[in-house]
Amino acid sequence: MAKVSDLMSQDHRHCDDLFTAAESAIDAQDFDTAKAAWGDFVSATEGHFQLEEGVLFPGFEAATGMTSGPTAVMRNEHQIMRELLSAVSAAIDANDARGALGHCESLMLYMQQHNMKEEQILYPMLNQHLPAESTCEEVERKLSRN
Length: 146
Description:
With 146 residues, the chain is mainly alpha-helical. It has a single domain (4-145), classed as Up-down Bundle (Four Helix Bundle (Hemerythrin (Met), subunit A)), CATH 1.20.120.520. It is 88% helix and 0% strand. It contains five helices and no strands. It has helices at residues 4-27, 31-64, 70-93, 97-129, 132-145. The longest helix has 34 residues, at 31-64. The radius of gyration is 16 Å and the shape is elongated. The protein starts with a helix and ends with a helix.
């Protein structure tokens, strides 16, 4: 049976692939493709955040009683990334490749650090504290909609 950590890490890789496609289109200054590709990335990333914030984090907090620990840090980082997502979107809408790529670089660095913390610290904790079968089923169901 799959683990929550495996499913969520796989979704990180999926989002990374979408990011790469969007960044390539921005770099080529193909703004029509960039807008579509960036929209796909933002949608997948927001779906990932909502799965964590709406299902996984509350389940972990209920199981452990920790509400100001790692999940609070991750929520804060999600908000910072949402701001960067908006900045890239605005730059793409303005056909500003240089600005968009600058924000993409910041976002990529932030995402790498964030994903590493989730994959090495938080996701193993989720595996330990959440009911494996029902949680994995819910994660798979929600990820299949993205």
